Amino acid sequence: MFGHGPSFHYRATAAALSLVFLAGCATSVPELNRTNALANKTINLSDTDATTLQQFLTAGELTSVQLVAAYLDRIGTYEFASSDQPGINAITNLNPRAVADAVSMDEERARGHIRGPLHGIPVLVKDVVDVSGLPTTGALESLRELVVDDDATQVQLLRQAGAIILGKTNVLEVDGRGAGSFGGDTRNPYDQSRHPGFSSGGAGAAVAAGFAPISLAEDTFGSVRIPAALTNLVGLRPTVGLTSLNGVQRLSWTYDTLGPITTSVRDAALVLDATVGYDPTDPRSVDVDKTDDGYTSQLDTKALEGKRIGVLDAWFSTDTPDRAATSAVIRAAVDQMEALGASIVHAEIPTTAMDDFSSIGRNIIGFELPDAQNTYLSEHQLPAVAALSAPTDTLTRADLQAFSGALDPADPAAVAQADAPTVSESDYRTALAARERFATAVAAYMKDNNFDALVYPSMQQPASPLGTSDPFLTERLASEAGLPALSLPAGLVGQMPVGIELMGRAFDEATLLSMGYAFEQGTDHRNLPTTTPQLK
To answer: Which residues touch 16 (CB under 8 Å, ≥6 apart)?
Structure first.
């Protein structure tokens, strides 16, 4: 249930953050000690994953309260424009209960109750996922004051694992919802004149800037993997159905899935360990087998040995200098996989399958998007938006567009068009059939050629300047094939990161993550951004 509440969307100073989140906590907050006494060096939050932070917490060298305070300190310093930088603008809402939640996790730890490896670790959530007490805005002005009472299933599971929800991340360029964005541009910490990727760009930029070690994001056509690639992070698109989508503002029934953006493969595996499983509130979720010790137990530095990986040469581009340089970096990364024991062979998706790929277009999402969004709105029993001339108890996509001025609510034809699919049901069914043929053909091709994974660039070029849109093709591959995909840091083109993507077999995230872990541990591609340096 939604209800009117105060606007949590903030534009404040670092001092204001301290007043709201630290002084507002009933329990006294210890002075932050950023020094790791064990290693006698400063903890760099941009380069320290949740796994390492948990070691500090377990050793008593750090508390969760101190950790939350440290991340709020970085957000207060780098989120906003200053004389030193224009501001990352990755956060839409901060959780005012984060410090109190950190106190609770510290108290549990003191009693000897450790929930698991995410106990006391701050996590950010893309602002299309419900978090109790915060708005789920989707970066829509019409939803910025509407606060949900219940957590999405994956948020519930992360909390049960001990994670602290620090806040929500910006959704870029409206994300197909059609009613205008209030979040504004998020900037890439590697170059703040450039964007950090598509709709989950706020999630990627936040982790890259050291605002949290983990972001939970949503991927339709690459929204997890693209920001991960462009901000030097790990991004996992799980198989659709592996985890629940209950409590998520959907774009599509066919494509949407939630996945982590992290600084390490192990952290991505930790998120899966906490969130994978059937959810009766999401009939599209499935019950899958996983080992008792979870995905992290299967990570192996030698996992590339003996693996057969197909290189999709046709998906590399050289038609511009940036693309040629990106392709060279990705091919060098493929060579590193080979040096780590993988068998690298040329691969080419059959022509008939590519014919289907080309014919799918946007017809599926064009048909599903209005129904997906309206279903979310109706399930949450939204109150009327006051700006509408004819308010209703249950909002629809048309109401949101009317609020933004995109349509006249008194025009029945415009209202009907806003709530209707943009393609015919016949074209939708044709596209679904083409997608099914493509997915079947890709799975068969991988099986027949004994491929453990296919590899290609996550993006064919580095991040472009703000206000420009990068063409994308490779990001659609896993989405249309219905397969899991993992984007990994591969190197730099100039100062800008690029990523390499491994696409695995359906529901075989364990193998995919283990191969990614072996590549990550056998290489050194994680360079830190210069615009958000460590605080003194």
So the answer is: 10
pTM value is: 0.92
Q: Which of 46, 200, 215, 223 is catalytic?
A: 223
Residue type, 500: I
DSSP string, 317-375: --SSHHHHHHHHHHHHHHHHHHHTT-EEEEE---HHHHHHHHHHTTHHHHHHHHHHHHH
Query: With contact defined as beta carbons under 8 Å apart, do 143 and 87 qualify?
Result: no
Crossing angle of helices 425-448 and 474-481, in 10° steps, is 90
Which of 64, 142, 181, 199 is flagged as catalytic? 199
- Would you place residue 163 in the very low, low, confident or very high pLDDT band (cuts 50, 70, 90)? very high
Q: Considering just the CA atoms, what is the radius of gyration of the chain in Å?
A: 22
Mean of per-residue pLDDT scores for the chain: 87
Adjacent-strand bridge partners of 456: 501
Q: Which of 46, 64, 126, 487 is catalytic?
A: 126
* 214-228, 298-312, 383-397: segment of lowest average pLDDT: 383-397
Annotated catalytic residue 168:
no
pLDDT (tens digit per residue) in 417-464: 888 999 999 999 999 999 999 999 999 999 999 999 999 999 999 999
Active site (annotated) includes residue 223: yes
CA dist 85 and 243 (Å) reads 38
| 244 is an active site residue | no
pLDDT at 33: 46
For 374, residues 6+ apart whose C-beta sits below 8 A from its C-beta are 396, 397, 419
Q: Rounded to whole angstroms, how far apart are CA atoms 261 and 222?
A: 12
